[in-house]
Design a protein that fits this description.
The chain is mainly alpha-helical and about 150 residues long. The chain has one domain. Helix content is about 80%, strand content about 0%. It is elongated, with a radius of gyration of 19 Å. The mean pLDDT is about 90. Keywords: Membrane, Transmembrane, Transmembrane helix.
């Protein structure tokens, strides 16, 4: 049962991260060079049109970090044990996808190629730590309430 729960958690986290990145790219109308909802269907043409726009790639890093954080939080909320580890797994998978993107499509600036390594792991770790801290606080609060009731 835990295997199924963990697999669903990872898929949900990846889905949320992908959705946030997609919505982030669509946030600015001047960047929309496609008719479909998902920019990934026409990714090569889209990246070619954005190759000289460093602001877009900076925003893509930001929105990728935000998506990875929220995806890590969602994953950590669903899994039962090793919450931070599963959140970091989201960061690893997103980093792998970003590295494939950089390798396959040559239109990324150098700062983006370097910064993806500094974005995905730390932000997914932060997502896992957020949930871990919340769970620890709730646990301490329950223990304190039990101690106060026994007095």
């Amino acid at each position: 049962m835990n295997f199924l729960r963990n697999t669903i958690a990872v898929l949900v986290g990846l889905g949320i991260a992908g959705l946030i990145i997609t919505l982030g790219i669509r946030a600015f109308p001047q960047w929309i060079t496609f008719d479909a909802f998902a920019p990934f269907e026409h990714w090569q043409r889209f990246l070619f049109s954005m190759k000289d726009d460093n602001a877009f790639f900076g925003f893509l890093l930001f929105i990728s970090g935000l998506g990875t954080t929220v995806g890590g939080v969602a994953t950590a909320l669903i899994v039962k044990y090793a919450k931070v580890a599963y959140a970091i797994l989201i960061g690893f998978i997103m980093l792998f996808i970003a590295m494939l993107d950089v390798i396959v499509f040559p239109y990324h600036p150098t700062f983006y190629k370097i910064s993806i390594f500094l974005t995905f792991f730390p932000f997914s770790w932060i997502g896992g730590k957020i949930v871990e801290i919340i769970y620890e606080r709730n646990k301490k609060k329950k223990i304190a309430e039990k101690m106060n009731k026994t007095k």
